[in-house]
Amino acid sequence: MRLRMSDWAPLLDTSDVNHALLLPILLHCRDDQGRPLLGPPRRGRETREFLRNAHNDIPAVVEAMRQYWMPTRYARAS
Question: What is the mean pLDDT of residues 51-71?
Fold first, then answer.
């Protein structure tokens, strides 16, 4: 599956606080060479805990992304 990057651009902008919604998903993604898409993880206990538990956050961030996009979806339907 390929994303329409232009549609996802608002959430791919690291300066946007909503970018964090994608992190639990992007942590599981790889680039074309098989490397982690987000680059090497930072060192430290907090990072290890986040990486270990990120998969548990996916259902919540999917719902949060749904809420994020709802105003856009309804605006297009009108």
Answer: 91
Give how far the C-alpha of residue 1 lies from the chain's centroid of Cα atoms, to the nearest Å. 16
| Identity at 30, one-letter amino acid code | R
Tokens for 1? 């599956």
- Candidates 41, 38, 20, 21; CA nearest to 29 is 38
pTM greater than the 0.70 cutoff: no
Smallest CA-to-CA distance from 18 within 75, 76, 64 is with 64
- Residue pair 13/5 in contact by the 8 Å Cβ criterion: no
